[in-house]
From TrEMBL, chain A:
Organism: Thalassomonas haliotis
Domain PBP: 29-139
Protein name per UniProt: Substrate-binding domain-containing protein
InterPro entries listed in its UniProt record: PBP_domain
TrEMBL record, chain B:
Upper taxonomic lineage: Bacteria, Pseudomonadati, Pseudomonadota, Gammaproteobacteria, Alteromonadales
Keywords in alphabetical order: Signal
InterPro entries associated with the record: Gram_neg_porin_domain, Porin_dom_sf
Naturally occurring in which organism (per UniProt): Thalassomonas haliotis
The keyword Signal belongs to this UniProt entry's keyword annotation: yes
Protein's recorded name: Porin
Length: 149, 381
């Protein structure tokens, strides 16, 4: 009996087209300066490498033994995107993907989210273990700047 | 298993009322994915007949795509509750509803975590076995670039266990290290995947129970700024009981299993290279071995991550009279793109080519070739 050739669709072409169109997107993002802030009495010396480790959940305590409370700006806030790009070196989506792996396997708790620069400054100035970041123009005397990007 | 579940829940209920002001955090993840295969193949198990191409996207839950567009093989929703009981003690539970189970929610994860100090933490409860690099978070689609970790490697009928973990974080030079030791057991009564195979090969069993006991091993991960490498080793005993329609039980010959692997990623410029190599060996009479690996390259361009992923699975017998390397064998070549259109959600589209390479006369070439397209959204909250 003659074998009937199975009918084959050609999804490969469509995929190729989608790929080609994706590479057209190139964007230039202008960054506003970001200031990393802690409580004014926090005397821990933290370099940029240490800050990155804190926001990736790899360092949990300051040198003096106090628990670190890292805090993020809200989802979609420009300062959060800028901080992730400049301090962690990844897009917000990549950082969130990294954290989702830790959060849903019980290996970490994602930094708490605060809604505005004003709330971040108020919270950091009231918590000795807190560390967060704001747009550099929003910094006040209530907090101590330990790094800028 | 039931006893363990009762114990864990009991501990949680005893501890919970004492912490009325306990801090409870809800989070979750989900995937809504549709897909289909293209064309038909000669049915490997029914010579002379043809059937739809089938791509198994999820072996454990028997989530398969055929020529009809389907939402059920990979779509799922999960809700996680994290109860901070204070004094470094936490209780976590994950309720997961999968399309393969008609979205009926089940507690897939529940465990207690105690942070002993900055370096040591212990966990007791139910969670995924840390086998392959992506095993623990294989269902969290948002956590990786692809539609799924290559399904032809994640083919085991047991993925979870009730156990105990001791985890140790330490720095070595500039690198963050984690050593996790684990021990546990899994009695998988009425195993879905094993019953599926029984039927596929013409059986008529009522149920197949799969027992993985004394699962003992460790993970060691080393992470730097741009890379992570993770080693895994564990061993366990394997038993199986098949129950016929008339209630007759047949026990398979038990054997020991050893699992070895190394996987991770490396970021360079805008590329991410991902890999996982594994070797599974049985001490059975025929010397069964399963060498598998995956390699993948992802290009990160703003919110787009186009990628290619290749995964190869093999099944050999090293001790039979005619030792053979040609039993179950296949590779999957996938192309796709992830588009992070939202801070908590991504769109993915992936085309897969599954190529059957097993020797047909052995009966192990039961998958058949398949080409499939799947697209959907992964999210976290």
């Amino acid at each position: 009996m003659e074998k009937i050739q199975p009918k084959r669709n050609k999804p490969e072409k469509l995929i190729g087209l989608i790929f080609a169109s994706l590479f057209i997107f190139i964007s230039n993002i202008a960054f506003a300066e970001i200031a990393v802030i802690v409580h004014p009495e926090n005397s821990s010396s933290l370099d940029k490498k240490a800050i990155k480790k804190i926001f990736m959940g790899k360092t949990k305590k300051f040198a003096n033994g106090n628990v670190i409370l890292p805090m993020n700006a809200s989802k979609g806030a420009p300062s959060r995107d800028n901080f992730n790009e400049l301090a962690i070196g990844r897009t917000t989506a990549q950082v969130n993907a990294y954290w989702s792996k830790l959060v849903f396997t019980g290996k970490g708790t994602m930094p708490r989210e605060l809604t505005s620069d004003a709330e971040i400054i108020a919270t950091v100035s009231a918590n000795k273990g807190a560390i967060s970041y704001v747009d550099a123009s929003a910094v006040t005397d209530a907090v101590k700047v330990i790094a800028t990007y | 298993m039931k006893l363990f579940k009762v114990l864990t829940m009991l501990i949680a209920t005893i501890v919970l009322p004492h912490s009325v002001f306990a801090d409870v955090t809800f989070s979750g993840y989900g995937s809504i994915i549709a897909g289909k295969t293209f064309g038909t193949v000669d049915d490997p198990l029914n010579p002379g007949e043809t059937r739809d191409e089938i791509l198994t996207a999820d072996f454990y839950d028997v989530g398969q795509y055929d020529n009809d567009i389907k939402f059920t093989p990979e779509s799922l929703f999960a809700l996680q509750a994290l109860v901070d009981l204070g004094d470094d003690l936490k209780f976590t539970a994950q309720l997961v509803a999968k399309g393969t189970d008609d979205f009926e929610p089940e507690f897939d994860w529940y465990y207690l975590t105690y942070q002993v100090n900055d370096s040591w933490s212990v966990m007791a409860g139910r969670r995924n076995i840390p086998m392959y690099y992506y095993s623990e978070f294989s269902e969290v689609g948002y956590a990786y670039p692809w539609m799924r970790p290559p399904s032809n490697l994640y083919w085991w009928q047991v993925t979870q266990f009730n156990g105990f973990h001791a985890s140790y974080d330490f720095e070595l030079g500039d690198y963050s290290n984690n050593l996790t030791f684990f021990y546990g057991n899994e009695n998988s009564y009425d195993n879905k995947e094993m019953l599926f195979y029984d039927e596929l090969f013409g059986g008529n069993a009522r149920s197949v129970d799969e027992f993985w006991s004394d699962i003992l091993g460790f993970n060691w991960s080393i992470a730097g700024d741009d890379f992570e490498v993770r080693f895994v080793y564990f061993q366990n005993d394997r038993d199986r009981t098949t129950t016929a329609q008339d209630g007759t039980e047949t026990d398979s010959v038990p054997f020991d299993q050893q699992f070895l692997g190394v996987g991770g990623y490396y970021n360079f410029n805008q590329f991410t290279f991902l890999f996982d190599w594994n070797q599974v060996e049985y001490d059975d009479a025929v010397g069964t071995e399963y060498p598998t690996y995956l390699v993948s390259l992802v290009y990160n361009i703003d919110d787009f991550q186009p990628y290619v992923v290749y995964s190869k699975a093999d099944h050999e017998q090293t001790k039979t009279a005619a030792a053979t390397k040609d039993l179950e064998e296949h590779y999957v070549l996938g192309f796709g793109v992830r588009y992070n259109f939202h801070p908590s959600a991504s769109f993915k589209i992936q085309y897969d080519k599954f190529v059957e390479q097993g020797e047909e006369s052995t009966g192990w070439a039961y998958h058949g070739d398949a080409r499939a397209l799947a697209l959907g959204i992964d999210f976290i909250f």
